């Protein structure tokens, strides 16, 4: 049997765990009220609530009673939750609501600042892209006929029976114009 001091410590740690469960529930209520009914975040909030509750209760059970299940555990958890909801819940709900409001406003300002900061960068990138397209258009217009002529010359050089230069040119042609791009012998498709 454990010492009475350890059991009192376990009892009060479980009372605190019940109060922490109440805080988590109030946070869930504030967030649900803020996001509105039938929000897409509802399932995510539920999952986070139950995950947090599992961590709080598991930590309290392991640290307080060293994993031993005692008959006073449900009583201590219920007492902690009742004390929290009776004494601290209205004040904690208001504080949590203010904290969520402050975080929401700060996130909104951060989004506005980010958009403002990246707007000139996006405009500069659009300008560079437009200039590159304008400058490369004549090069592409000149390069396409030259590449077509080079492809024809490479095909003539790569005909069988030309010896080593023909094989080298064939390998070069296969490297430059892989099968399937219209560069000569078609591969299986």
From TrEMBL:
- Keyword Membrane listed? The answer is yes
Q: Which key words are in the record?
A: Membrane, Transmembrane, Transmembrane helix
Residues that span the membrane, as ranges: 6-31, 43-63, 69-87, 124-147
Name assigned to this protein: Spore cortex biosynthesis protein YabQ
């Amino acid at each position: 049997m454990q010492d009475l001091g350890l059991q009192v410590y376990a009892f009060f740690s479980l009372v605190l765990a019940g109060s922490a469960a109440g805080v988590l529930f109030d946070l869930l209520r504030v967030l649900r009220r803020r996001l509105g009914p039938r929000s897409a975040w509802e399932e995510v909030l539920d999952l986070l609530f139950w995950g947090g509750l599992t961590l709080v209760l598991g930590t309290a059970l392991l640290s307080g009673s060293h994993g031993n299940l005692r008959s006073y555990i449900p009583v201590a958890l219920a007492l902690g939750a009742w004390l929290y909801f009776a004494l601290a819940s209205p004040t904690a709900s208001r504080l949590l609501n203010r904290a969520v409001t402050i975080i929401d406003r700060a996130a909104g300002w951060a989004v506005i600042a980010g958009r403002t900061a990246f707007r000139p960068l996006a405009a500069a990138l659009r300008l560079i892209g437009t200039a590159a397209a304008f400058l490369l258009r004549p090069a592409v217009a000149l390069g396409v006929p030259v590449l077509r002529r080079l492809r024809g010359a490479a095909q003539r050089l790569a005909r069988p029976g030309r010896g080593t230069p023909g094989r080298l040119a064939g390998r070069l042609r296969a490297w430059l114009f892989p099968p399937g791009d219209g560069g000569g012998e078609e591969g299986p498709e």
